[in-house]
Write a structure and sequence with these properties.
Blueprint (H helix, E strand, L loop, with lengths): L1 H8 L1 H32 L8 H21 L2 H13 L15 H37 L4 H7 L9 H37 L3 H45 L5 H26 L16 H14 L4 E6 L7 H21 L4 E8 L2 E9 L15 H11 L3 E7 L2 E9 L5
Parallel strand pairs: 1-2
Antiparallel strand pairs: 2-3, 3-5, 4-5
Helix pairs in contact: 1-2, 2-3, 2-5, 2-7, 3-5, 5-7, 8-9, 8-11, 10-11, 11-12
Length: 417
């Protein structure tokens, strides 16, 4: 019984009732246009006083409403907002974008017609039934209504018929509540099917989500490779300077100078990384580092941390495409950063162009002592290298072979197919 009362008069039902009445209000302009069409056609002098003319006007109004919804794509967005607020349908089941495409417009027109049709019927019942029901309920007690004003038939003078009038009035109100509850429930059930996203909408949302994830992944790679490398280099340079402070002041001065240069340069690289988020809106953003312009500085800062690096360059970085030069710099940076953190031994770096590919190789002996445990959330460097290589149509391999850790990356000069 409680569930029935909640279904008929609960908060959700009342809000859906309001939604239906709004549909009836939206239908009124179309009904007025329908009256202009129906009135001359049926030769009705007073359309408002002719029930048949009113019903015909309402029937003409619904196709006009459907045509309006099909011509104005924004109708779907407005109707979806009303359904979310008043019908209790989750936002994830509705589309908030305007209707584009024949299928989406057709479904929006069907929904708008249903909303205005059911809303017009429930609105008319809401206007007519409550006064009528109140009259029936009060009929036994107010004799003036029975005798003078209404001119009711003599059959109502029978006591048992008159006693049933309040029951009939309550039944009218109950029927009105039931019709409103059922109509509201039907609209709420049909809303996801008619106002929900089409396959094209889902595809567009998936593409937008993929583009957003691509930007976020790119930002994560740039932060990891630039700021992460700089912090690792500064940590090792400071550690080496502390150990040799009394024995080798010249090395300490070199390390401190390298720390200053690294931190200053990292601020510029951080600005370039943040430019990924506001690309095209920040004309003063520093350019991203490239192999042609920044390889020498990278090698100098890495060596200042105490790591011996032997570099063999069999390519002209100036002739590399800008995107390839930028991504290659990040790959070299991450390879040297891994060696700086984990190896502590001489590193061989070779960059060459062979067979239409830029080949990057970083080798260092595997340390005899176990490598320190990765920090929580770390260990993404090799994955970032693989992602960069894959996006450029290249390959990346890393692993220990015969006591030597080897990172090899091949990038096509002309980019992916």
């Amino acid at each position: 019984m409680r569930e029935l009362a909640r279904f008929l008069l609960g908060r959700r039902t009342r809000r859906r009732w309001i939604h239906l009445i709004l549909g009836g209000a939206l239908a009124m302009p179309y009904v007025f246009v329908g009256q202009l069409i129906v009135g001359p056609a049926v030769h009705a002098r007073y359309v408002f006083a002719d029930l048949l003319a009113q019903l015909l006007s309402f029937a003409v109004a619904l196709p006009l409403a459907a045509l309006t919804a099909a011509l104005f794509p924004l109708t779907r967005s407005l109707e979806a907002g009303a359904v979310r607020s008043l019908c209790g349908v989750g936002a994830d089941r509705l589309s908030s974008s305007p209707a584009h495409g024949r299928a989406a417009k057709g479904r929006t027109a069907a929904w708008f017609t249903l909303h205005l049709g059911l809303g017009g019927i429930i609105s008319g019942m809401s206007l007519a039934l409550p006064p009528f029901a109140a009259m029936l309920i009060a009929l036994p007690a107010v004799a003036v209504f029975r005798d003078d004003l209404l001119g009711l038939p003599e059959a109502l003078d029978r006591g048992w018929v008159l006693a049933l009038m309040p029951v009939a009035g309550a039944a009218c109100l109950l029927a009105l509540a039931a019709c409103a509850a059922v109509a509201g429930a039907l609209l709420a059930r049909w809303a996801p099917a008619l106002l929900g996203p089409t396959p094209e909408d889902r595809l567009a949302a998936a593409e937008a989500r993929a583009a957003d994830l691509a930007v976020r992944n790119r930002l994560a790679r740039e932060l990891h490779d630039s700021v992460g490398h700089a912090l690792s280099a500064v940590t090792l340079q400071a550690s080496a300077a502390r150990r040799l402070l009394d024995r080798d002041p010249e090395f300490v001065r070199t390390a401190l100078a390298a720390i200053e240069e690294t931190t200053r340069r990292t601020v510029g690289e951080l600005d370039a990384v943040l430019g990924v988020l506001r690309e095209g809106d920040a004309p003063g953003t520093a350019p991203a580092p490239t192999l042609a312009a920044d390889l020498d500085g990278l090698l100098h800062r890495t060596r200042a941390g105490g790591l011996r690096v032997t570099a063999t360059i069999d390519a002209d970085p100036e002739r590399l495409p800008p995107v390839l030069s930028r991504e290659a710099y990040r790959i070299v940076q991450e390879g040297l950063s891994n060696a700086l953190k984990h190896a502590g031994r001489p590193v061989l770096l070779r960059i060459a162009v062979t067979g239409g590919h830029l080949e990057i190789t970083v080798e260092n002996p595997v340390p005899s002592a176990p490598a320190p445990a990765c920090r929580p959330g770390g260990g993404h460097g090799l994955r970032g290298i693989a992602d960069r290589a894959r996006l450029l149509g290249g390959t990346a391999e890393a692993g220990a072979v015969h006591g030597v850790w080897r990172l090899h990356v091949g990038l096509p000069l002309k980019g992916p197919a």
